[in-house]
Amino acid sequence: MKILHFAILAALALPATASADQYYAGVFIGSEHVGNDNLNDVNPGLSFGHRWSKSGSPVEYHVEGGVFYNSYEEVSPILMAGVSTRLIEAGRGEFRVGASIGAAYYEELSQQLEDNYGIPNAGGFIPIVALTAAYRIDNTDIRLTTVPPDTDTKAVVNLSVAFGF
User: Fold this and answer.
1) Mean pLDDT confidence for 53-72
2) Among the residues of the chain, which ranges form H helices?
3) Distance (Å, whole) CA 109 – CA 127
4) Closest Cα partner for 65 from 81, 50, 79, 45?
5) Alpha carbons 94 and 112: distance in angstroms, whole number
6) Fewest C-beta in 10 Å: which of 25, 116, 132, 142?
7) Is 84 within 8 Å of 53 (Cβ atoms)?
8) Which of 94, 75, 102 is nearest to 140 (CA)?
């Protein structure tokens, strides 16, 4: 948990030195739990984020927080921080790849997830590590995010859209 706190503090300190930044709203659409039909794939959610980079750099940092209806049918707050980079320009936009770390609150299931799958929790907060691929056109990202699956699932992929303003 100390690493999460350090990462969030570092990410929050960086905007003061950044020269290109943007706020955005995220809309979580749903997930696919490959190999597991017992989990909820309808995972709507909303988030608010801030992304920034040094002018001209393809590397971008972000902090994003929000709430979503998780795969275990609970409403969960989430906070993530991470980095992404431009992979290639294609058509009107660009493909980006990135990684994030953070935590989500699983009020009812955190202890069961720890007991069944070894997922640690601190007072209901479980760590999240995510890899994201996005296609950005102007200020809008279409994002596919994957998180490590549990032992009953082969892969987890989430679809979301982020609208910059």
Assistant:
1) 94
2) 2-13, 110-117
3) 13
4) 79
5) 40
6) 116
7) no
8) 94
